[in-house]
Each structure stands twice: as C-alpha cells, then as structure tokens.
C-alpha cells in the first residue's frame, strides 16, 4: 500500500468511504424494514392470541423476537467502529490536503497591499491623506 502515489491514496480512501457509506445505508434500511415487519406481525398475533387464549405462546414469540433484535442492535453498535474508521480516513485526508496546501503556498508568497498591511498587528502607522496634506503645506 505504501507504493501508492498520494493521488492514488486519496482515491483509495474516497472509494472506501463511498463504499462503506452505501453499504451501511442499505443495511440500516433493511434492518429497519425487518423490525417494522416483526412489529406488525407481533401486533397482529397479539390480537389472535387474545381471542385464542394463547398468550403464553405469544409471549414466547415476543421474547424470541426481542433477543433477535438485541443481537442485531449489538451488530449495529459494532458497525459504529467502522464508521469511526471512516472518520480516521477523513482526518488523514484533511491532514494530507493541509500539508499539500502548505507546500504549494510556500512558493506562492506575496506582499500584503499597504491598506491591508496597515491593519495588521505590529504594523507601522501610515499617515492619512489629511496628515500628508498638512505636512506638505507646512513651511519648513
């Protein structure tokens, strides 16, 4: 991996982030859809369990579903670690671009215009046009 050029490293990181975000979004939607389906099924089966006097069986079904979703939610929490890794990749890219900017800017130095320079801390005091006119009109 260290044989990659900086541009290839950037492209690799961006492709990785794009892929992770797409996969994570799809997984989250699928999990939410499955949870909604299970909730609908449990709601319907509760009504049936009341009328058929099978609340004990329904209660067991609810417990099994809860355990299933607890495991899924733990997987989602673990997935957060991968999102954190994406954050680390983004930080690496920012550091890279900052360094790149610093290298490029070293060769592009330019003086500040006097109007701007005069407003900087520690700048020499510039005379206003009125002060210049007064000085030019004085008898020396």
What's the β-strand tally? 0
Average pLDDT rating: 76
The largest sheet is: none
Overall 3D form: elongated
Tell me what portion of residues adopts beta-strand conformation: under 5%
**Secondary structure category:** mainly alpha
Straight-line N-to-C gap? 75 Å
Instruction: Supply Rg.
Output: 33 Å
Estimate the helix proportion, in percent.
over 70%
Series of H and E elements: HHHH
* Low-confidence sequence ranges: none
Number of helices: 4
Topology:
Blueprint: H1 6-52, H2 55-106, H3 114-117, H4 129-137
Helix pairs in contact: 1-2
Could you describe the 3D structure shown?
The chain has 140 residues and is mostly helical. 80% of the residues lie in helices and 0% in strands. The radius of gyration is 33 Å and the shape is elongated. The mean pLDDT is 76.
Q: Which features would summarize this protein structure in a list?
A:
single chain, 80% helix
Nutshell version of this structure?
The chain contains 4 helices and no strands. The model has no long low-confidence stretch (mean pLDDT 76). The longest helix has 52 residues, at 55-106.
